[in-house]
Structure formats: structure tokens, C-alpha cells
Description:
The chain is an alpha+beta fold. The chain has 6 helices and 12 strands.
Amino acid sequence: MADHGHNGPLPLTYYPAFCHKVSPTFFAWVKIAAIDMHHLKLRPGFEGQNIYFYLNHPIQFICAAGIIVARDEQERRSILVLDDSSGACLEVVCSKNVQVPNTNATTTTNNSMNSNNHDSNTSPPEPTHLASATHRPLNITPLLPGARAKLKGTISCFRGVLQLHLERYEILHDTNAEVRFWDERTRFRLQVLSVPWVVARGEVEKLRAEAEGVAVGGAASHKDGDRDLNADGHVVARRRKAERGREREKERARRREEREERDRLRIEKRYEKEEVVREKLARRCREKSALVRRDGKRGKRLRQVDV
Length: 307
């Protein structure tokens, strides 16, 4: 059931989780300013899912860009501070790849490094951090104070402060790239984030039916050992959406053909009526022409008699 709430002057409807897949923000890297990110809110019923809301837009992935003004190294994580010129700064957290040291392996590695010191000097540094969601190795060596970068990640909260948990990044080499990002961010805020998300009642019911069907199908496929369908049913939802799109296209083509056929019949009937009218006019013209010719011959004979 949709949850109706109020955030400021706008009445907002918070839709169930099965509606989030049609949201323009849920599966997107949401370009957002630091000052706006600090206004994201949690909603009852979504605790522990790392889903935050701007108005009633569900957001789980964010993208920010700016200049790194500080970097703090801790035992298990690195904390960056990003200034995106929005009036607030954003903390960026990147977890370190903490491994248990192996004494034998360390000794062997040290001996090898001593014997091949010139090779180790030329090799690139090993990634020492992990991405937030995929946990793949991540090298954040270029992310030093003064660097200009575009950062993407998930949302985390520490002591009431929202943070970006780094997933990937891109170095911006000039101010023009940062300004282009500002333009995209502003456009997205005006066109998407500032407008309440609305889903039609019929669409909500369709999504509910799909979610219930996917849940039943997922349980059956799990019993049969079929792993093709993921837990959330996104694969089936995409297939059904594509099928509905093809059906709608066929329906539009059928209606277009019917409309063209009706227009053709209407034009033919109009042409037939006009043809009947033209035939009547032509017949009248022929009759009048015959009368004129007959009267002309009669007048000629009378003139000859008078002479």
C-alpha cells in the first residue's frame, strides 16, 4: 500500500518497494550536490536497505564531483573530504583491503624483493582498497588533496552524518569537466529530483501482480534448482516489460491500419457521391446543349422562310 506523507508544501506518496524498479533514480547514479545529499531521509519500512529518499525518489547510488580537500588514513578505511562548491562538504569513505599477514610468505617476498629491487620500483602500486558494493580492488592513490575527481558510490551513515562509500571514481583533468558535471547535476535536479515521483494506480497494481507472481515463480524455481531468476525478479520484470512494449507496438500498428482503412472507405464513398453529382451536372449540360442547338436550327429555318 502506498504511504502518503508530507515533506514541506508538497503532498508526497511513498510507493512500495516493488515499484522502485520503475523509478528514474533507483538504478541510476544520481548526480547530487553535497548540500542536497545531507537532506536525504530514511523512511519507515526501508531500514537496513540503504535506501534514502529525496522527496519521494528512492536513491541508493549517488555521484558527486569536486575537489578533494582532505584525506585521513585510518586502520581499516580512508576518509576523503570532497568540496563540490555547493555550500557543504561530503565525506567519502573507502574501505581498506585488510589481510592477515603470512610470516613465511612475507619472508619469501622480502627475499625476492631484495634480489629484484629494480623490478619492484617500476611496477605499479597494488590496490589497497575495496569498492563498496562489488568489493573489487580499488586503487585510490591519485585521490590526494587538491585532486579534482568524480566519485560514485553507495550511501552510508556514521553518527548521523551521511557519507559516500566509494565504488569507483574518475579524475577530472580540468575545470571545464567539473562545470559540465554541474550543468548535468542542475538539470537532473530541476527535471527529476524537484518533481515528485508519480506512478499511476493501474501501474502500481500491475507491479504488485508482477511482484507476487515473481515471488511464487522464484520459490518454485528454487525448489527445482533453477537459478536463472534472481531474488528480486528483475530479469522477469524486464522480459515482461519488453513483451508489453512489443504488444503495445503491435496494437498501435493494428489501430493505425484500421484507421487508414476507415479513411480509405470514407474517401471512396465521398468520391462516389461526388461522381454522381458530376454525372447529373454533365447530363443537364448535355440536355441544355441539345436544346440550344435545336433552338438555333429552328431560328435559322424561320429566317430562311421570311426571306
